[in-house]
Amino acid sequence: MRTGLSLAVLIGLMAVVTPPPASARSATDAPVSVAETTRLYKEALEDYKAGRFAVAEPKFRRVLEIMRQTKGPDHVDTMTAMTGLVRTLDELGRTAEAEVLQRELWKARVRVSGPDDPSTLNAESNLAVLLLQLGRTAEAEPMLRRLVEVRTRLSGPAHRDTLVARNNLASALDDLGRTAEALALTTVLVEDITRELGPEHRNTLTAVNNLGLRLLAGGRAKEAEVLLRRNWEAQRRIAGETGAVTLQAAGNLSVALSALGRRREAEALQRETLAALRRDRGENHPQTLGMTGNLAVSLIELGRPAEAEGLLRQVVAGLRATRGAEHPDTLNAMNNLAGALSKLGRRNEAEALYREVWVVRKRTRGEAHADTLLSATNLADVLGDLRRPREAMEIISDVLARRRATLGDQHPDTLTAAEKGAMLLVQMNRAAEAVPVLRRTWAIRRATQGDAHPATQQVMNNLGVALQVAGDDAAALTLYADGLAVARADLRAGETPNRDLINLYINVAWTQSRLGRPDLAWPPYAEATAALLRRYSDRRASGSAESALAIRRLDRGVFLDQVAVGWSWAHQP
């Protein structure tokens, strides 16, 4: 949410502020001069612009208190001060407090200017965005639908405010699990704005970027890459190599490349972009820290978590200094740092960090917020890795219940929680209970996301593992073979297999060996070994570089040992 503060209007009107009469003040209240109030507001605004949100908050709060006393709740100065405080609370991650104040502001705007005045619509839009952030999407959706209708009627479908409303509505539909509707809405939005404003208008490029990100979130990374690259190349021509929008576009493209398994390309682009950000904006600028975090995630995916840890510690320290310890960006960075620690085998440290983030998110965003539930899921994952499945199951069961209550049984996030619970059952030697859960989620994933979607491939792979643990190797092999065919058909020429495909090669090899067919096991394991070595260039990451030699020698004992090592690697978190 980004509503504009009008410094000139506020200061101009403050020139005629009249303190309340002495009879209306308590004996302990000191009168506040116009000059003092104006100075306080200007200081708060400067602190806000400089990112000193914790310093700005009490100043905005004091100005608001003065305005309410001297001008009343519905005066424009009061509402301007309220806007500043809402924005500051939002930046501090105190979204629930911001929502209460923003609702009060919206109601004041309705009373003063009517429901369809531009200032009222801005207030309503900001309230809807806060509701989205709080996970109260069902409340936000009708507000966003009304905003789209009114904005379109008043300003046209391609006006910036209308586009924001349409994009926010698409985000709400995404959150509600109505992914197809969200994509359709965003696609039409791009078509409308391209027709009205041309392919390289800044609003068109923003819409293209949003569609690319939505496709990426929906698992359609190849389509997303095309759009995000188009956006990046256009921004380079228009805004220059180091323009803010260009660097942001480069960051988004790098995420798509990483999702496609082209992580070395992603790393190179991130390093180039990060160098420009450090030079132009400094080490602790939010964009610089964000790109540093993206690079760290790529390094984790490339099997270099030790490098990632150092970068993420820099990011966490920078965000704590500039945005505060409880800001959502700081918590996201801490979450990624915990992921790096887990990859390094330091799971007790990771658990402590995941738990800290979870506790803060429960307090600041509520127990049912999407970010809180993500933290709970991460904590459950690491507890499972620490062989504490019963603790993990208690947490993931609560996540699953909340997901079902707010999103329904077939939402992707609900399915993910169900899958994680099923794999904890496998860990507790209750694979027979896990199999029907995984079969159901696999069927839903196939119907809604397609056989080639990474999430579909993941649950299919997990179902195979559950079947093997339950003693049905033949059924597992059929699953793995079918999944391998789909994944290989989806692999682009020259593209390195992603982790899911490598898992499938290893699982086919391992299952064939369990069934006493080593001749059939060797080829897929050789494929997995070669892919791991290409992907990571790290002997340890592939189990052993000598596995290829073992396969050539047809040394059954060595080969089976290498399969076991590879299977263990592929299934580590």
What's this, in brief?
The protein is an all-alpha fold and 573 residues long. It has helices at 7-14, 34-49, 53-71, 76-91, 95-113, 118-133, 137-155, 160-175, 179-197, 202-217, 221-239, 244-259, 263-281, 286-301, 305-323, 328-343, 347-365, 370-385, 389-407, 412-427, 431-449, 454-469, 473-489, 499-514, 518-536, 547-553, 556-570. It contains 27 helices and no strands.
Give the helix/strand layout.
Elements: H1 7-14, H2 34-49, H3 53-71, H4 76-91, H5 95-113, H6 118-133, H7 137-155, H8 160-175, H9 179-197, H10 202-217, H11 221-239, H12 244-259, H13 263-281, H14 286-301, H15 305-323, H16 328-343, H17 347-365, H18 370-385, H19 389-407, H20 412-427, H21 431-449, H22 454-469, H23 473-489, H24 499-514, H25 518-536, H26 547-553, H27 556-570
Helix pairs in contact: 1-2, 1-4, 2-3, 3-4, 4-5, 5-6, 6-7, 7-8, 8-9, 9-10, 10-11, 11-12, 12-13, 12-14, 13-14, 14-15, 14-16, 15-16, 16-17, 17-18, 18-19, 19-20, 20-21, 20-22, 21-22, 22-23, 22-24, 23-24, 24-25, 24-27, 25-27
The portion of residues forming beta strands comes to under 5%
| Main pleated sheet | none
CA(first)-CA(last) distance: 35 Å
Our Rg estimate from Cα atoms comes to 27 Å
Structural class: mainly alpha
Specify the overall morphology: globular
Secondary structure tally: strands = 0
Helical stretch count?
A: 27
Mean pLDDT: 81
H-E string: HHHHHHHHHHHHHHHHHHHHHHHHHHH
Helix-residue proportion? over 70%
Uncertain runs: 1-30, 538-573
